[in-house]
Amino acid sequence: MAAPKKGRRQSAPGKPGRSLVFILIALVALTGGMFLSGHSTPRLGIDLAGGTSITLQAKNEPGQKNAINPTNMNTAVSIINNRVNGLGVSEAEVQTQGADNIIVNIPKGTNEKQAREQVGTTAQLYFRPVLTVASGEPTPKPSASSSGKAKDKATEKGADKATTPPAATGSPSPQGRAVTDGLKADATPSPKSSDKGSDKDKAAPTPTPSADPATAALQKKFTELDCTDKAQRGKVGDGIKPSEQTVACGKNNAGQWEKYVLGPAELNGKDVDDAKATINQQSGAWVVNMEFTGGGSKKFSKTTSKLSQQQSPMNQFAIVLDGEVASAPSVNTTLNSNAEISGSFTQDSAQDLANILSYGALPLTFHEQSVTTVSPALGGEQLHAGLIAGAIGLALVIIYLVAYYRGLSLIAIASLLVSGALTYTLMTLLGPAISFTLNLPAVCGAIVAIGITADSFIVFFERIRDEVREGRTLRPAVERAWPRARRTILVSDFVSFLAAAVLFIVTVGKVQGFAFTLGLTTLLDVVVVFFFTKPLMTLMARKKFFANGHKWSGLDPKRLGAKPPLRRTRRATGSSAGPVDPKEA
């Protein structure tokens, strides 16, 4: 008995209903997650939503030459980008322009103002011991007749402050603890009067630094410093080397300015390995955890060992950025590679300090050269133009599908709608998740994806038509066409995804938005074709409208030029019986 001939392997119909239910559940889950997250629209980039563009110009630090070079500029771009995006700002674009300029584009958003403050803090970060601290706000000079009363009032005020419990209370954590009361705009830490001792002279409004180690010039500068004057604050650190003593300003918890005399820098930002804002499990308060590098740990341990033996305020170290004290925690014990800064932190103030510490020091000093605001109206016009272009492209694709594929176009249009819904919900969710923003190049990527998705449908439909032309009925034609179409679709989408991945890696800025969107939509094309288009086509093949080859189904055998089914017939042989011609007898 002859073995049957082997033909092409036919794909099993499977259970298309399960795949359709799966895609429906995914859509419902993504849509629900979108609304639960409080975001119903994708985040828009600066070219679509408007925002602020800041130009920073690099300056050599005192005593340094040739510091403005591509390596340092790229390092500065990386750190500024980390600082701004560390605040959750959507698509803050940071890039170099020319030899000494950096352009920072901050889209309009909730953290725009905060990001601008971070961009402005571009000087090096130092850890300096505190030598003296006093009120940084001007004190009116009392008249001779009332000098006694003024003195008594000042003494009384100092006594009132001394009643406040010091921030340095509490036992240190196993890795050591530095305690502070806050930060920068949310009230940078200030040493409490009780920490300074019970001596009323230390609680005076305008103490002077000791003759040793402060010089007479530094003492004069400290006495005359008015921290409420922005011009004075911006110049206090000019020309000061890390190895020199200096004066600086910072805010306390009440929002009042205080001025400091600070010793030579013991550490800099490069000695910090990482810093994170977390919640202390015991107290439930926000704290900042610091980790130092190997070399930084040794220097920090040596510094805190000396500070822990001093009386307040000389047991404090100031974290100085741009010549301004961001925080001045006091030290209770010798600290090693880890430290915890705690106090009256809010989540925002703790995160601010963590950002300042975590991203270290910039290799250059930068000054704001210009600040330009991009109008949201202009961005809205560009978004409107992009949406019109997308609508025109989608309309042309639908017209082609309806004209050429007729009834099959309904399956293609439904698949495009599912793909669009998945793309929209994912873009919206990726905004708060990874700070993805929709810019104009990303819109272009989404428009290109319409053609990629439509191409997958066309490949599948043409394979089905080829099988129908061979004389097969629709249901087996669908299952025999799928394996061949599947291979072609996977290869095509793999090439598109590979191109998008390479483009994303080798480019910067807005072009990455195009590449990311193209890669995302390419992956979604595979999901939609496998879990929606193919199962839906399998179900539609069971309907009479498509199975009987209606002329509007797009699968009419006559219109496709299908061959009639092959039928084998027996040919007459000489031995077969039949009438005989009498003449041949």
Name its key features.
16 helices; 585 residues; five-stranded mixed sheet; alpha+beta; 45% helix; six-stranded antiparallel sheet; elongated
**What amount of the residues lies in strands?**
15-25%
**Residue-averaged pLDDT:** 76
Number of E strands: 15
Low-pLDDT stretches: 4-9, 143-211, 572-578
**Fraction of residues in H or I helices:** 40-55%
Using only C-alpha atoms, the radius of gyration works out to 37 Å
Whole-Å distance between the termini? 41 Å
Count of DSSP-assigned helices: 16
Choose one word for the global shape: elongated
Biggest beta sheet summary: 6 strands, antiparallel
Tell me about this structure:
This protein is of the alpha+beta class. It contains 16 helices and 15 strands. The strands form 3 sheets. Strands 4, 6, 7, 8, 11 and 12 form a 6-stranded antiparallel β-sheet that branches. Helix 3 packs antiparallel against helix 4, helix 11 runs antiparallel to helix 12 and helix 12 runs antiparallel to helix 13. The protein is elongated, with a radius of gyration of 37 Å.
